[in-house]
Design a protein that fits this description.
It contains 20 helices and 43 strands. The chain is α+β, with helices and mostly antiparallel strands. The strands form 11 sheets. A 10-stranded antiparallel sheet has the order 1-2-9-10-11-12-19-16-15-14, covered by helices on one side. Strands 6, 7, 8, 13, 17 and 18 form a 6-stranded antiparallel sheet that branches. The chain has a 6-stranded mixed sheet with strand order 20-38-39-43-40-41. Helix 11 (440-453) packs antiparallel against helix 12, helix 12 packs antiparallel against helix 13 and helix 16 runs antiparallel to helix 17. The chain is globular. The protein starts with a strand and ends with a strand. It binds alpha-D-glucopyranose. The site of alpha-D-glucopyranose has 13 residues, from helix 8.
């Protein structure tokens, strides 16, 4: 069944039934204030840090799912019937309740109609503000005047989200609220000497009553779906001194036939409660609110217009032009911290994940990518290895002992330099954890050196606690386990170093890194080629994993794709291993990470065996490495296969099978259950995932083939043979390129001719526009490409 559709013109996804298989969410706020917002108004907000500065309480893993949130109740004071403006939490049945939710860029609009009363609530965070607006419009479609009350409701979190759900002897005694000038203040103290405050108010209508103690609003055994206050139509004016502070107000609304009344709610965060009145009154005029929403939309339009495509696949267009880029920006903002599957308590900025994430927004915000890379590189040790993650608040690292983390710098830095042309960045000095400084180039060189000098019995890099695959934990008694994937990453990184060394004139390094790449490549092909594909690893006993000789886990995707992407595979090997992927791992729902999954717990392989067959690393369709297979297929020129893999996991293409897929059809999820799982095809863990950036890269740079390189913009499409062509707009180093690709001969790959502003180029590399690069106004260029 379908639950919604894309509205291309308004750049929104429209949900037409509230009972989506899982909450389908959006992110409000793209700076310091963030709100997670589901299609039935569930979710929570936080300021900067979802653990330490959590504004609203949310119950993960709750039944019924997706409670609390940003709730508005409407009560008919004559019939005493009541309902929610967002379906949840009152849950009226669909015979009488109409509903629509529109998720847009940074805003969500939920509309309902019940008992001849329409509501439309627009939720968003204005630019530059640490607050969210809920604009509620209530319209009477009846022929009689209606006597209604509206109730607003939020439940406050006692700031520290972990403590809030563990330490009740303490936290049931710290809650405090105040009520002043129509505004609720949540002033529970935060540790010592902190005046931070959350506030909730209606900026343009005076409340007829309020409650700030949960039991007074809900009643002792009441809950969100049948709160006492709404049933009785009466508030008690309670102030919280301990227990559970909430924010709830009641508003009496009389509506003539056809009349609409608008209420503007403001929920926000301040460091100093004295700032609250000004914040609230700033938004008392609905025009100001509307302008703030217009500005927000404009901001997103401007930020996402650096790349767009018009192809023969409208779903590809909608993903690449909007949703996939929007998701990438969201991973920039919140990394893996707060989603409906990440509770905002545990994880910081992962070294590996954050490096990869940059690939998805380097074309949007190169300056920010530069800062991010500097933060990451500052968490690298002098020996070249790195912390596993760092805290976004302090930028300090923690955790270490992974074999791959440091090498992802050799993926992010080249991508930044290729996109921006900022070669000087390579010579920027950045400290290591110990304090010593080195250029960015030196940081990468040391990353490679670490892996080269920490090798196991076959001469391949040790796999330590884990490599990219967090769940292959092969190190127990000794450190002999080795990672083929890390070896391939060394080859990849060394080849990039060769090109960067050329760029900055380090001649000796050109030879040095060529040797490193060639030697490692030979070694891999000698010891880690299984005959038809690459092994995945060697365990502590020097036994291969990912081999035809293994009973389970015979073939893994990562080393096939990276074998090709890194240039390790000779042409014949590349075809063979990608054929093996196609034969053994590809399914109609995407490419599985490995097969066959482990059925029993095999301790020496580690946590991969924790998962039931077909989930997560144990044989799921991991959406993050799927694009690696697409890229590898593009490298070997098989556009039809690349596109088939792309479509299999593309969220928009799964809209039709939402009951199977379950997660949002407008963003990537981390994984889809593999064929060995009873729920084959079910998506899990959406939004904050490396799937976002890599799928965008696969689509923009490899299938469409518009790929930044050190010396210009490459045009190297690898498309389905039946495509007649496509058009792309790409902003590159300050200039705008309008690229038209034609495919008269029905090929997948190969460029016969390229002309730039009607002049034929010698190759498919468009040289950068020098004038635009030096800051002079960016020029527009027209590029004509004929494939064949
Ligand atoms: C998760 C982690 C990522 C890891 C992947 C595979 O997506 O965030 O760091 O590489 O799982 O284990």
């Amino acid at each position: 069944m379908k639950y919604g559709h894309f509205d291309k013109e308004n750049k929104e996804y429209v949900i037409t039934r509230p009972d989506t298989p899982l909450p389908w969410i959006n992110y409000l706020g793209c700076e310091e204030y963030c709100g997670l917002m589901s299609n039935t108004a569930g979710g929570y907000s936080f300021y900067k840090d979802p653990k330490e500065r959590r504004l609203l309480r949310y119950r993960y893993n709750n039944v019924p799912m997706d409670r609390g949130g940003r709730y508005l109740y409407i009560r008919d004071n004559n019939s005493k019937d009541y309902w929610s403006a967002s379906w949840q939490p009152v849950l009226k049945d669909f015979d009488s309740y109409k509903y629509e939710c529109r998720h847009g860029t940074g805003y969500t609009v939920i509309s309902s109609e019940y008992a001849k009363i329409k509501t439309k609530t627009t939720y968003f965070v204005p630019l530059g503000e640490n607050l969210e607006i809920w604009k509620l419009e209530v319209t009477n479609t009846d022929t009689d005047t209606r006597d209604l009350s509206a109730f607003s409701f939020v439940e406050f979190c006692l700031w520290d989200a972990l403590n809030d759900m563990t330490d009740y002897q303490y936290n049931l005694n710290i809650g405090q609220t105040e009520y002043k000038d129509n505004t609720i203040y949540h002033i529970s103290r935060y540790r010592v000497n902190k005046d931070i405050c959350a506030y909730f108010s209606c900026s343009n209508v005076k409340a007829a009553g309020f409650d700030t103690q949960r039991r007074d609003f809900m009643g002792n055994y009441g809950d969100w779906s049948n709160p006492r206050a709404v049933i009785e139509g009466k508030m008690t004016g309670s102030i919280a001194h301990g227990w559970s502070p909430v924010g709830a107000q009641m508003f009496n609304i009389k509506l003539k036939p056809g009349e609409t009344k608008t209420l503007v709610f403001v929920l926000g965060f301040v460091e100093n409660p004295a700032d609250v009145p000004a914040k609230v009154s700033k938004f008392k005029d609905v025009k100001v609110v509307d302008q703030a929403l217009t500005d927000l939309k404009q901001y997103w339009d401007d930020s996402l217009n650096k790349f767009s495509v018009q192809s023969e696949d409208p779903e590809l267009d909608i993903m690449v032009n909007l949703w996939n880029q929007y998701q990438c920006r969201t991973t920039f903002n919140w990394s893996r911290s707060a989603s409906y599957y990440e509770s905002g308590i545990g994880r910081g900025m992962g070294f590996r994940d954050s490096n990869q994430d940059t690939l998805g927004f380097v074309h949007l915000i190169p300056e920010k990518v530069k800062e991010r890379i500097i933060d990451l590189a500052s968490n690298q040790f002098e020996d070249g290895s790195a912390y596993h993650q760092y805290s976004p608040l302090t930028k300090k690292g923690n955790g270490s002992g992974y074999s791959d983390d440091h090498l992802w710098l050799c993926v992010s830095v080249p991508a930044y330099v290729k996109e921006s042309g900022d070669v000087r960045f390579l010579e920027t000095k950045v400290p290591f954890v110990g304090g010593e400084k080195g250029t960015v180039y030196e940081h990468m060189a040391r990353a490679i050196n670490f892996s080269l000098t920490h090798v196991g019995p076959h001469g391949l890099p040790k796999s330590y606690f884990a490599d990219w695959n967090d769940c292959l934990n092969l190190t127990h008694n000794n450190e002999d386990a080795e990672s083929v994937m890390v070896a391939q990453m060394v080859v990849y990184g060394a080849y990039e170093m060769v090109k960067m060394a050329e760029l900055i004139g380090k001649k000796e390094d050109v030879k040095k890194f060529t040797d490193i790449a060639e030697t490692m490549k030979k070694k891999i092909n000698k010891v880690a080629w299984d005959g038809n594909w690459y092994l995945r690893s060697f365990d502590e006993q020097k036994k291969p994993m990912g081999s035809s000789k293994n009973k389970e886990g015979q073939i893994y995707l990562e080393t096939q794709a990276w074998g090709v992407m890194s240039g390790t595979a000779e042409p014949e090997q590349a075809i063979k291993c990608m054929d093996a992927v196609n034969k053994q791992l590809a399914t109609k729902h995407g490419v599985m990470l490995m097969t066959p999954p482990y059925k029993e717990f095999i301790w020496k392989y580690g946590s991969i065996c924790v998962y039931p067959p077909g989930l997560k690393e144990n044989g799921a369709i991991f959406c993050h490495p799927n694009p690696w297979a697409m890229i590898a297929e593009c490298i070997i020129g098989r556009g039809d296969i690349a596109y088939e893999y792309y479509k299999a996991i593309q969220p928009a293409a799964r809209n039709e099978i939402a009951d199977i897929h379950k997660t949002e059809p407008y963003v990537y999820c981390q994984m889809i259950a593999g064929k060995d799982h009873p729920d084959f095809g079910e998506g899990k863990n959406s939004w904050l995932t490396g799937s976002a950036c890599w799928n965008l890269v696969a689509a923009m740079q490899w299938i469409l083939g518009i790929r930044p390189d050190y010396n210009g913009l490459l045009v190297d499409p690898c498309i389905p043979k039946k495509w007649k062509g496509f058009q792309v707009k790409k902003v590159f180093r300050g200039a705008t390129y309008y690229i038209t690709v034609r495919n008269p001969e029905g090929v997948s790959k190969g460029v016969k001719s390229v002309s730039l502003d009607n002049k034929r180029l010698e190759s498919n590399l468009i040289p950068p526009d020098k004038a635009a690069q030096t800051g002079k106004a960016g020029k527009e260029h027209h590029v004509e490409v004929i494939m064949g």
